[in-house]
Amino acid sequence: MKTVLPPGNPFAPETLSDPWAFYAAAHRIAPAFALPGTPITYVIGYDAVVDAVGRVEEFSNAFGTDLAGARSQDPEVTAILETGWPAVDTMLTADPPVHTRYRKLVNLAFSMKKVEALEARIREIVVQLIAAMEAKAARGETVDFVADFAIPLPVAVIASEIGMQGSTDVLTVKRWSDAFADRLGQMIPRERELECAREVVEFQRHSKVLIDERRANPTGDLLSDLVHASVDGEKPLDDAEIMSVLQQLMVAGNETTTSTLAAGLLNLIQNPEALARVQNDPAMIPNMVEEMLRLETPTSGMWRVVKRDTEIAGIPVKAGTMLMLRYAAANRDPSRFDNPDAFLPDRKNARTHLAFGRGIHMCVGNMLSRKELAVAFQELLARLDSFALAPGAQLVWKPNMLLRGLSGLPITFTARTGAPQTGAEQAA
Ligand code: HEM
Hints:
globular, about 50% helix
C-alpha cells in the first residue's frame, strides 16, 4: 500500500507547539498512518481513536518500560532511584486485571459525591486567587494568569486531596509533579534526569510519612481512602503502590487542568462576542468548559502498544508497534465537529470530545477537573471584566509530546462593576 503522509514531522518542536495546521492537513489524507523509519503508527481520526481505546486486548497501556528506554540503563539514575521505593505500574501504564484493581480503589475516592463535597473548598481557593491577582494588578505588577491562577488552583486542590496540604507547600508539590512529567514526556538532558530521580525519592520519602500517619489516624481525605480501601476483599495497597497512585494523581491532575484554564481564558480574550454571551448567561459555563477541553486537549495524545498483528483504520500494524492516539487531532476531526477550529461555547456535541480519553483508562479525575474549571470560570467572569493580553505578551506553548500548554499568559483586567452575582449565586 502506498503511504501518503501529511507534510511535516508531527514530533518536531514547532509542530508540537502549534499542531493545528498539521492535523487539518492530516485529516484530509487519512485517519491513521505509519510514520516511516519509526515503530509508530499515528492515529488521528475520531472514530479510529474511539475504536483503538476500546480494543484493550490488542492495544496495551503497558508502555512504561518502552518509554523508560535508555534512562533505565543509566547506573547513576538507577542508584538514586534504588534509595527510594520501586516504581509500580498502577493505572495509566497497567492493563486488566491489574488495572481493574487499582481503578476500582481510586474510583471510590473520585466519585461525584466526593467531588461535589469539594466544591466549597475549590471555590474558596478560586476566590483567594482572584483576590491575589487583583491585589497584584493594583500594585502595578503584571499578572501572569498561568503562574498566578492556573498553576496554583489544581495544585492546591490535589495537594489537599492527597493529604499534602499543610505538610508541604504548593511549590514543592509542583516541583515534584514537574519532575515526574519531565521523565514521562520530554527529551531531557542527563543532568535533569538525575535531578528528577532525586525529586522522585524526595516525594516518596515525604509520602511515606503521610501514609504512616493515615494508617494510624485516617482523616477522611483521599490518601486515607487509599490507605484503607479494599475492594472485593483484596489486600489493601502497599506503600509502593500507594506512592505510584499518588504520583499519577499529582501529575495527571496538575498540568492538564492548568493548561485548560489558561487556553480557556485565552479563547475568551480572543473571542469577545463569545465572552459577552457567557458573561450574560453563566448557565452556558459547563458547556463552554467542554468546548475549551475539546479545543485545547492538553493531553495531546497517549501511547498504546500493539500486542498482536492486526489493523487500525485499515492500516496493518504488527505486534510491538507503538500507537500514538492523538486525542487533540481527533477533537478537531471535521467529520465529527463542524467548523472544528472555532470556539463555540454552545456547540451541541462539545461534550463528546476525547480530551479525557475514553474506555477503561478514561481520566479518573474528569469530574474533579470539570468542577475546578466550571467554578474557576464562574468566579472569574462574575468578579472580573475587560480581560486582555498584557501589552507585549508573548504566547509560548511548551513543546511536549504528550502534554501541551501555555508557559505564561500575561493579562490585564478590571473589576466587574454593577454588583454582579458571585459564581456561587449563579451556580445555586
Ligand atoms: C483537564 C484536565 C485533565 C485532562 C485533559 C486529563 C486527561 C486524561 C486522559 C486523556 C487520560 C487517558 C489516558 C489514556 O488514554 O491512557 C487520563 C487518565 C488519567 N487521569 Fe486525567 N486528565 C485531567 C485531569 C486529571 C485529574 C484532575 C486527575 C486526578 C486528580 C487525573 C488523573 C488521571 C489518572 C490517574 C489517569 C489514568 C487512569 C487510568 O489509566 O485508568 N486527571 N487523563
